[in-house]
Amino acid sequence: MFNTKTSLDIMDFGNDLFDLLKALGKAEIRFVVCGGVACVLHGVERATYDLDISVDFDKSNLEKIIDLAKEFGLSPRIQEPVENLYEEENRNRWVAETNALVYTFVAERSPIQLNIFLSYPLNFEELMKNSETIYLDEVKANVSSVKDLLYAKEFIKPARDKDLIDIKERKRLNEQTN
């Protein structure tokens, strides 16, 4: 069902994104792939340079993510210390003060980004329970279910063009398989 050999492999930086996704799985980080990469894995043809994930905000899980980001040469896009992710109060403040939906790690020499959702239409445990497990070179990763992915993309207001395109294409693919 999942398509791991589409636009991710065609893009110049696709292997970096693919390697980052595998590394998250190898590190046994509790995460669910959302956004554009989830769309691609569910068969939508599109390009993306960022990996959007919903995570368990447990401190040990966040520490693994921070270590992995450093290993990949990723650093926070904002001046806010990454360790402030540990506290729910800080995450809620960022969302309230800046309308931020994600905490972003960026690479200095590539367009690759790792986005951690600070706010998501579904809580992490529900998203994880509904997720679909995939294996990338024998490394386990959880991907948002199509239903949850569409729900999240439809939830975003105002709707973004890329989300509307993803929704339309995924619904078209659903019709083809039914």
List the helices and strands and how they pair.
Layout: H1 7-10, H2 14-26, E1 31-34, H3 35-41, E2 50-55, H4 59-71, E3 74-76, H5 88-98, E4 102-107, E5 113-117, H6 124-130, E6 132-136, E7 139-143, H7 146-155, H8 161-177
Structure description:
By secondary structure, the protein is an alpha+beta fold. It has a single domain (about 5-170), classed as Beta Polymerase, domain 2, CATH 3.30.460. The chain has 8 helices and 7 strands. Strands 1-2-5-4-3 form a 5-stranded mixed β-sheet, sandwiched between helices. Strand 6 and strand 7 form a beta hairpin. Helix 7 (about 145-155) runs antiparallel to helix 8. The longest helix has 17 residues, at about 160-175. It is globular. The chain starts with 6 loop residues before the first helix and ends with a helix.
- Give the DSSP E fraction (strand runs of 2 or more residues): 15-25%
Compute the CA-based radius of gyration.
Answer: 16 Å
CATH top level is: Alpha Beta
Give the rounded overall mean pLDDT.
Answer: 85
Biggest β-sheet: count, sense, barrel? 5 strands, mixed
CATH topology title: Beta Polymerase, domain 2
Percent of residues in helices comes to 40-55%
The H/E string reads HHEHEHEHEEHEEHH
Number of alpha- plus pi-helical segments: 8
Give the beta-strand count: 7
Cα separation of the termini: 14 Å
Low-confidence runs of at least 5 consecutive residues = 1-13
For the largest beta sheet, what order do the strands appear in spatially?
A: 1-2-5-4-3
How many separate domains? 1
> Structural class of the secondary elements?
alpha+beta
Global shape: globular
CATH architecture: 2-Layer Sandwich
